[in-house]
Specification:
Order of helices and strands: HHHEE
Structural class: alpha+beta
Number of helices: 3
Oligomer: single chain
Largest sheet: 2 strands, antiparallel
Distance between the termini: 61 Å
Mean pLDDT: 83
Strand order of the largest sheet: 1-2
Low-confidence stretches: none
Shape: elongated
Radius of gyration: 20 Å
Number of strands: 2
Helix content: 25-40%
Length: about 90
């Protein structure tokens, strides 16, 4: 029997699993949008927006980041790719 029965040592893997289950929605920075949002903004189909965005990423004009967002109201947050204009490093 331990001295403090209320304190348990939590397995690190279990702690990581529990943290993943209870993740909260991320705040998406200004300028980052999903493919669907870019398609709507540009007034084109999702397929064409996908081609343009992926080509822009390949050319280095846009960057990809994943954020946890709610895809459906009755679901848990899901990591979803967002695309935004690539920020340039400033010369010092």
């Amino acid at each position: 029997m331990s001295a403090n029965p209320g304190t348990k040592k939590v397995d690190p893997l279990l702690a990581q699993v529990m943290a993943a289950i209870h993740r909260k929605v991320d705040a998406v920075p200004e300028g980052f949008r999903t493919i669907d949002e870019w398609a709507k903004r540009w007034g084109i189909s999702r397929t064409q927006a996908t081609k343009y965005v992926h080509k822009a990423v390949e050319m280095g004009l846009m960057e990809t980041k994943k954020f946890l967002i709610l895809c459906r109201k009755d679901a848990r947050p899901y990591p979803t790719a967002h695309y935004g204009e690539k920020t340039r490093q400033r010369k010092t």
